[in-house]
Amino acid sequence: METFYPETPINHIGGIIFVNGPLQLDKLKQAIASCIRTTESLRLKLVEKDGETLQYVDSNADNHIPAYEFSTHEHMLEWAEKAFKTPFQLLETSLAEFAVLKIGGQHSGYFIKCHHTVADGWSMKVIIDKISQLYTALTQSSSIEQEADNHSVFIDKESKYMNSPRFKKDQQFWKETLSDVSESYLVQGTDQIKGHRQSHYLDRQLSEKIYEFIDTHHCSINSLFTLGLFVYLHKKYQQKDFIIGTPVLNRSGQKEKATSGMTVSTMPYRMKIDPQQSLLESLIDIQKSYKAYFLHQRYPYDALVKDLELAKAGYDQLFQIFINSYSTNMVQEMEGYAVEYIELYNGFQPYGLQVAVKEWDEKGQIELQYDYKISDYGKEDIDFLHERMLLFVENILIQPKQHIKDVLLMTEEEKQRELYQWNDTAVRFPQKQKIHELITDMSKTSPDRIALQDGSHVMTYGELERKTNQMAHFLQTQGLQRHDFVAVCMNHSPELIVLLLGILKAGGAYVPIDPEYPHERIQFILDDSQAKMFFTDQASSYHFEGDTYNMYNVWDDLVQYDPVHPFIGDAEDVAYMIYTSGSTGQPKGVMIEHRSLVNYIMSAKTHYTDSADDHFALYSSIAFDLTVTSIYTPLVTGSTVVIYRQEDQSGFLLEHILFDQKAKVIKLTPAHMALLTDAALSQSVVKRMIVGGEQLPAALAKRITEASDGRISIFNEYGPTEATVGCMIHQFHQDDGGTSVSIGVPMPNTEIYLLDENQQVVLPGTVGEMYISGEGVGRGYWQRPDLQESRFLPNPFVSHRRMYRTGDVAKRANDGKIEYIGRIDHQIKLRGYRIELGEIELALMALDEVDKAAVIDLTDEAGEKQLAAYIELKEKELTTFLLRKKLSDQLPAYMVPAYFVILDELPLTQNGKVNRAALPDPLLSQMETEVEWSKETAIIEEIIVDTAKDILGHEKIEPADHFYQFGGDSIKAIQFIAKLKDKGLYLKTKDIFTYPIFREMAQVVQQEPALHISQEQAVGDVKSIPIVEWFWSQRLKDEHFWHQSIIVHSKKKMDERIMQDALKELVIHHDGLRLKVHEMTNTLYYDDGMQHIPLMIHDFTELSEENVQEALKEVGFQLKQRTHLYQGPLIQAALCQTTAQSHLIFAAHHLLADGMSWQILVEDLMKLLHGEKVTAEILPLKTHSYQTFAERMNQYAASGDVKEEFSYWQKEVQDIQPLYQVATNEGYVKDEIKLTKALSVELTDQLINQANKAYQTQPHELLISALTQACYQQTNQKKISLELEGHGRDAVQEDIDVSRTFGWFTTMYPVNVNVSESFSDHIRAVKETIREVPNKGAGYGLLSLINRQLRDHSAPQLRFNYLGEIDQVLKQSSDYEMSYFSSGADSSLDNQLTTVIDMVATIKGGQLIFHLSFSEKQLSETDMTQLLHEVERQIERLVRHCLEKEEVEFTPSDFETVDMSLEEMDSLFT
């Protein structure tokens, strides 16, 4: 686990033993130290040898126990929680920590933290008991026999077991028990491990009842709550087969139980729920099976995971839920004072959820503790779970014989809300009338209104009434009787609608058939329906037992029939029968009665119309029940049915309807809606779109709304044919959340239930199958009693009602609206995750470039289950690589399809739904990946392919090939990633899921972290950072004159015009050059008006070389003297021309620049001067601005990381000591003396390039070693306080890059070095001292100058700064040279010096040069010269010492995972 989650406290165990009284702390320390000496596991350490991690017992373990005092209990807890979460460094260090605690005057205790490799929960009891016994003996001056325990007993025992017949027997048991594990409800966890803990105490009365119950039924409390957890999981996920984890002690006998050590292992526990069993029967089963499992508990869990080959199936664990029960009796008192054990939580989770049942509360209260991954659960989820556990307990205590299927785990209020409150939809409607009677009523009140319009032909309501009555008479004369079926296979026309209404008036029911159906389907419907008559509008070639009529042959004969017709039948008669697809491949007839139809149409009238001018378009197949809405809703409203036919139009019919500007209401499917263009939408008069048939993507609804400028209201209507067109409705709003539009709430007189397989209501907020009840439920299936019985069921919640089982799954939100999830048969399981294919389809359609999408699952050639996406694109240029990239931003990696197939059009059924059966084979049709090619990516591609050949064992792998098609799986993915890492390429597991094509991997593989940085000009104010605050705190007499400067010397004359242009481009590229100071606030801001660096031109052609040097100093002085902080600019330049050479002086106020900035500036200047053209476009991309850095620094200042550094810096400033006696407290620039000392090129090379190997040091660590030794030799002080400078650009380490940013980033911080006589000891001590400084000193400035938390203190007298090679930037150019200290004084002579001794070390021309400055009023030149000589001497000694060493000497900082002192490390190697 440490390999997967390094440097986290995930394996920490322990807490606080809090004593309600004042213990004798010195005795407590002795007791703990004695416990460590006599407890081998507390002295266990880990060491790496030959690539293996080994354990050993350290006989010389450090027994030092620190003591801490706290004023309050809260402060103590705050400290303990922080200390507990500090990770162990693992290798060669103690894996157990103790501390003695004093809290106020009357409380005490101790802190214990152990790594799980040395202790488990049982060990905590062993250790705590032992410390208590030792303490009691010490305080009573009595002796106690405490033999050192023998931890090796566990190792010996384990070794014997692994080679015993018992091992084989246990292995066989687990293989048999879990052989069909893939059938169980395995859940894949996230790779996030941050956790949280919630604790709940059961009240004492309930706890007593639980104890009484388990005593009566002879079961354990663990079994009881295990059943509770299983019942909850069963109810939440509607699954029956679960595996959870539980710990097992693996100890036997008194000796083992009295020995501390990590023996606990994990045991899977599987339960197959039988909903027909009672709670008590299930509890007894659990109790029995637990005992059977425990007989085989010793078999290692890791071995079991390997045996079952889980990784091949994509799982990393057998379970993600863990249950544990603690009934350990801890020490109750010490020295007469009550003891409380405060268990601490490490904040990280190996499993998604751990439920702990604790019985150690002295009041007899049971505690339920929930530890959970915050990436998997939220607080509300755990509150919900806890409430279910309480309801389970309540159920089993009161009704132990209740069947599991009948246990709801819901409060009465929740049940009432789910079943009745959300379904309170009763509305009055004309339930005794038939649909044609309502239309007849309209014809009487508005006979002259237009009922039907077909092009230029119209029919009024009066004409419609007469024609339909005549048609009814005709049908009856031809033998049609009440309840007879009439098959109708016609295109849209006024005659069609007259026929349908005539059939209804004659007492019959119509069977609509789409003329476009295949011949076989039409023939089947004719045969199956046993229709009495068959009407068509063209010649028929079908075999039909009854009479066949051509509507147009009948039409002219209708005039002879009576235009008045009496009403026949009642509202329970069937109005129509629509055939829908069946699971057997043959369609099935769904019968809908008049009463159901009238209820729906009246609801549609209310929701979809507000005027008699809301005309409906009739264009869709009469065999599709959305057409029902378009025919009857307008006819009961008094508006017009506008008829359209595809054969009349060459283009997309729906688009023509919009351009025609007659219909104001259209009903359509999402697939058809997606085809509508913005142009058509903007010109249409449509007010409402009713969408049904499929899930409606929110992105599509949003596009339609926006394209119509909000004129079109979209209603999402859900309903199967069996529930009369629609039974749920939701009006879309732009601010609706989610990827799909909600299906809303039940329509009037409708109940929607979300139920499990036993028709019990599901838990609130969980997924259940939708059942529909109410007036809309149809009569059922024609002649399909088997299907009728399974789909149309008695309503168990409302008497004398039926309900229809939809096969759709959904969940209800807190506001009662229902979110459609998909079909039960569209839910799949892949790599341990349950996936709803519809969710992926919606995510794809939410992409701007994707028009339509369908997703399927398949088994590929390697036998692996994969996802394939079929896509219709708006933009044909989109590549699979970009598709994956965009989709991976929306979905987890496991939901990104492995295959993409781009189609010109997705195949649709007649009803406008995606025809999945007609989708091509994705393995043959997948889209070729296209990526940008470069020489670098070609090299990376080659490395990736070679690595894949190695890992996957295939020689013929090409860049365009697919990882999973060559046998890739989860294990191989991990191996592949590890192998690439060895080659300097970095991928994540999710990258392989998302980008399985090797060529695509080459595009996303990382060689180092990539950041996206704005290239726009920085504007506005800049927050202050510590170094800027430090500058203002100096209160210089002349704050305007305090500079850094350089000179670039050119052996050739520079062109003045090109130089002007170059300086202008530098200002464009480097925002920091435009910084100025607000006079009122002394804060920095960007001057948008600054266009260039002022350049002065000086002619030195008449001067001698010696005079040139003096003149350069004079010009430099003038530049600096002219600088004004508030008026700016803060940088200026001068080009000084001699006869054959040029000297370019840059002078910038120090607020603007640091040493590294000059190297950046000069490097870019060279590019501009020697580029093809002088433009900032040729310069490298900008890194983050100084402004961004300052913002991040201020955020960092408020972070917990900086607060944690407070105690470190508080101690460091307390230890600062003066180095020299100074004659006066202040020194001034006018009194400054500057000394230099240059080492030879040979000595410099030895120091920088060779001496570092002996102690694995950095050059500055050796320089500080030599400097502090020199100070010791001169002052005889063993503690040397230094003020160190760092470049500061890495102070904020996350997601920020200022490596090429011009600005002042310097950090300054104190370091105290204890000098050792031995060179070896001293170098190692300095190295560790420097590396122990938190975050390279950045926190010191934040705490002292930004947060103002450190008390005022004196700075060290000696400031040291190692700049490294200052001429590196011009090394490749023999024509240029750069100097730092040759343009005169950088500070006003009247300014005070900011430190007593300032030492800067640089390398120039291969020589290390020390620049030392000080005030002659404070120190003597003799002493300072002597100091420089001593530094040189110490460097010579140090180099000689290091070069003579034959072996490398390591220190703790060389091992990142080790936390130990130098002394502890030395003890391991002596």
Automatic annotation (TrEMBL):
Segments forming domain Carrier: 935-1009
Cofactor entry: pantetheine 4'-phosphate
Highest taxon of the lineage: Bacteria
One GO BP: antibiotic biosynthetic process
GO MF annotation: an example: phosphopantetheine binding
Classification via Pfam families: AMP-binding, AMP-binding_C, Condensation, PP-binding
Keywords for this protein: Antibiotic biosynthesis, Phosphopantetheine, Phosphoprotein, Repeat
GO CC annotation terms, alphabetical: cytoplasm
Keyword Phosphoprotein among record annotations: yes
Annotated signal peptide: none
Keyword Repeat: yes
Similarity remark: Belongs to the ATP-dependent AMP-binding enzyme family.
Protein name (Swiss-Prot/TrEMBL): Peptide synthetase
